[in-house]
């Protein structure tokens, strides 16, 4: 503990505290003085805490110190109960609490200064979750976190640069080079001054040039501010457009929607997604794996020459010829009994292919719709950037409402058709399941018949041929349909572009007039703003000077008031002491012996005599105790031996009684046996 106090006193007597303490004066400090000293040390670490504790409440002082110690990661010794005692001791200024804190702070002042500096920028402000739902607050919080991360990176780079160090020779060379450049610039400025002095009104021209430079700098700053405001306006408009688009989509989704329709829609989406996840995507994945396997196999084989390729082509042609021959033989041996089976198989394969085709069409349509929406959004943004937003007025709005009504009726009609198609699809799906079950049973019978006849695999070859022909017909049909759709889409797009141009023409004309008016208002606003800025600058300068004067006078008044209170307290203490001294002298010189006994000197004299008499009595008693100590100890030893002897006798007596009782029991048992 003494080493700790020595270290604290030594550090406080050095820079920057410059205290003149020794061990006695430091140990005699009161609680308020210790708290003020701790506040001064904390203020040296963080300048915000350099305050006079007499000007704040004790709770505020303790809270402020605890918060800074928490930021500095000070861990008080002990458990949770000790933590509460630590807080109480910090409030009351207890020495066992303040001394370890001062020792810990003064040991690592430079490190704690850096930590306090970083805490001002890296202690994160906790924003409630309900406030983060606001886009502006969330965006501001995100920018705040990004700036915090940027500050961390910059601080790390700064520390690395500080620790890396530079060569003194390089720094000297740089300094000498800069001094040479400075001399050259001074000489050049002097030559230019001599040239300018020969020109008439050169002072006025220099002043005009300086004003021109200032105005150019101001113009650049205003242009930068204008660009920033334009960017902010553009971002705000984009955010507004996104929100409006989301609102429209939600309105469209809610209009004419019922729980039954929503459930049907969700069921359809679930069926479609389950079909994609269980049937379509696994098949595509399997085919991709097979193709990848073949490609890897080809890649692993050595390089083939042209002769090897020719041999493979010949083999492929031979296998194709054999396949064609087998197909022809199968067609020639076609029997009418198998027509029913083939019809069912063909229907099932057609339905499954149609299902796959519809799923692919639906997926392609969704992708096309998403791409079209993105493109439409881009075009809309470009049009708004170029010509401004489109606003419907008068007849155009009525036409738009009528168009929406017609589309609504058309949508309801199509929705009914879609419900019918969905019901029919369910029936067809059930029919497909039944047909699949029947097809499996018939397929097993057919395989058994083929094995009996010795033509196993005939039906599979026929199914493959039918599938190839059906696929070819569907592909031809799909190509024709795709070309028709593309031509119709091109016509519709051309018509839409023409309509948009005709509808945008009056709006663009009106927008040009508004832009011209906006430019005039902007110019007038800039002029008014310049006047306002000049007036505000003058008022601000006057206000700042007055505030400084008021602040200085308030500080002087507070200082004088504190001096007055201190002097007044000292005066009262001295008056009380003087009054006590006068009363004591009066009592001491009084001729009355009763009055003299009331004097403090007499009281202390009586107390000294009483204590001396008491000391004599205690010494006599001590002498008696010393003389009788030896015999008394012998007597105590004899009593202890006597006690042990009596305890031994008691145990022997108890043992004898137990043995007597056991003998009586044995004798009684023997008598009983004799009687029997």
TrEMBL record:
Belongs to the IFT81 family. Residues 137-246, 309-389, 504-563 form a coiled coil. Keywords: Acetylation, Cell projection, Cilium, Cilium biogenesis/degradation, Coiled coil, Cytoplasm, Cytoskeleton, Differentiation, Phosphoprotein, Spermatogenesis. Component of the intraflagellar transport (IFT) complex B: together with IFT74, forms a tubulin-binding module that specifically mediates transport of tubulin within the cilium. Binds tubulin via its CH (calponin-homology)-like region. Required for ciliogenesis. Required for proper regulation of SHH signaling. Plays an important role during spermatogenesis by modulating the assembly and elongation of the sperm flagella. It is found in: Cytoplasm, Cytoskeleton, Cilium basal body. InterPro entries: IFT81, IFT81_CH, IFT81_N_sf. Residues 3-126 form the IFT81 calponin homology domain. GO terms for cellular component: ciliary basal body; intraciliary transport particle B. One of its GO terms (molecular function) is tubulin binding. It comes from Crypturellus undulatus. This is Intraflagellar transport protein 81 homolog. Its main location: cytoplasm. PANTHER family: INTRAFLAGELLAR TRANSPORT PROTEIN 81 HOMOLOG (PTHR15614:SF2). One of its GO terms (biological process) is spermatogenesis.
